[in-house]
From TrEMBL:
Protein name as catalogued: Peroxisomal membrane protein 11A
Key words of the record: Membrane, Peroxisome, Peroxisome biogenesis, Transmembrane, Transmembrane helix
Main location: membrane
Annotated PANTHER family: PEROXISOMAL BIOGENESIS FACTOR 11, PEROXISOMAL MEMBRANE PROTEIN 11A
Lineage: Eukaryota, Metazoa, Chordata, Craniata, Vertebrata
Protein species of origin: Chlamydotis macqueenii
């Protein structure tokens, strides 16, 4: 995935430079090969998504339970569409309506990301509320550093809220990384569905950043937001 989006980003950056036509063509061919390979590697992921959906239905908190279950179910639908597109690309199902299935796949992926972001916002809101409650519990400790920061936040409206948000995300790296990854992943479906048009450079950069976050959470599981 990181290779695919790196090729997309590099080909966008150098496509208008002289004497780079062959390199751009090779980068686009490699990007296409990576995309096809990823589709093949994802063939069994629909089972994983369904298993994850079954697990998240047992979460005690209603909001994460709904968001994550809906996300996993729509992600399973996305993988089904992706498998059909792979069958089309290798010639096993030549009669498949590719634009229609691509549109369905993109919509499923888009909705899955929205549900993930809703869960992230719920986690952020809960932690912000918890931080405010801590501030109230420490009203008698005026010189306490944490209390001073929150008092400052309380008196400065939107700026204070942003400061508190930054402090909250800084204290919870898994939540920050999950938020960054989901926001980056959103650039592709937003462009494909015509909701917010960008360019291959932006999509490539966001894809590379998202992939690096994914690699980081695989290498360090404690940085992955727990379900």
């Amino acid at each position: 995935r990181a290779t695919q989006y790196t090729c997309m980003l590099l080909s966008y950056l150098i496509e208008h430079k002289a004497d780079k036509e062959k390199l751009v063509m090779k980068l686009k061919q490699l990007e296409s090969s990576m995309s096809s390979g990823r589709k093949m590697f994802r063939l069994g992921n629909m089972v994983h998504a369904l298993v994850a959906a079954r697990r998240t239905t047992q979460l005690p908190d209603v909001v994460p339970r709904f968001c994550l279950t809906a996300s996993n179910l729509t992600r399973a639908l996305y993988f089904i569409c992706d498998a059909v597109l792979w069958l089309k690309s290798v010639g096993l199902q030549p009669d498949v309506d590719k634009p229609k299935w691509q549109n369905w796949a993109t919509k499923c992926y888009y909705f899955s990301l929205l549900m993930n972001l809703a869960r992230d916002w719920y986690e952020i809101s809960w932690r912000l509320e918890h931080a405010v409650q801590e501030e109230k519990a420490k009203e008698n400790s005026f010189w306490d550093k944490h209390s001073q920061e929150l008092n400052y936040v309380k008196c400065n409206g939107l700026h204070g809220l942003l400061v508190l948000l930054g402090q909250t995300l800084k204290r919870h790296p898994p939540l920050l990384l999950d938020l960054v990854k989901n926001l980056c992943d959103l650039s592709g479906p937003l462009d494909t569905l015509g909701i917010y048009k960008t360019n291959p450079g932006v999509i490539g950069f966001c894809g590379v950043l998202s992939s690096l976050v994914g690699i980081l959470t695989l290498a360090s599981p404690h940085l992955k937001l727990k379900q």
